[in-house]
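User: Study the fold:
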Amino acid sequence: MARRNQGEVAVNKIYGSAAEALEGVLSDGMLIAAGGFGLCGIPELLLQAIKENGAKDLTFASNNAGVDDFGIGILLQTRQVKKMISSYVGENAEFMRQYLSGELELEFNPQGTLAERMRAGGAGIPGFYTKTGVGTQIAEGKEVKQFNGEDYILEEGIFADLSIVKAWKADDTGNLVFRKTARNFNPPAAMCGKVCIVEVEEIVPRGSLDPDHIHLPGIYVHRIIQGEHEKRIEKVTTRKREEA
């Protein structure tokens, strides 16, 4: 059995609610990295708590903003979001309306670039070069450098004030397991925040997770909440049952 070093204090990462987990952490004007892709793996409980808190002038780094009444979309409705750093707008009519009317700042990133910017921030890497976006509007105003005769643009790592993510399971130390497609932007988003809060479906006893099955180690996670989550389908497509 491992012994605790003299003077070492056990840290309790588990909080009773999303509001409690955000207490003392959330403030106006923050840069928040949020996991999720479409409607999969969205930290919905924490987003609802941010809405109820009323924090404003927020910048979100997230692949998309959910839909009008779910995900970051609920914060667009209340005008709590100042800027989005995103890859995709299409499924959120209010997102599109605010952007086209000049009410919302938008920094477009290719999906791979956005994921790598988050991962780079989590690894302490301030910038990296990529070919993605060379010769397009994405490259405007960015440093261009040649490697082996090819142009690459400099992209900066994202260092967020706060990360909010959704996982399937966690132990009390914050080791995380994501379920299937929810393992999208959640791991890199979790890595790049000064403080990372995760909401999970289940908290399991310490030592019960197979180390080989852990997708993100608990060193990145500061606070954990458990709760019930809605299983939404973004678009339902059906066909008539074939007659026998």
User: Anything to note?
Assistant: The radius of gyration is 19 Å. Residues 1-9 have pLDDT under 50 and may be disordered.
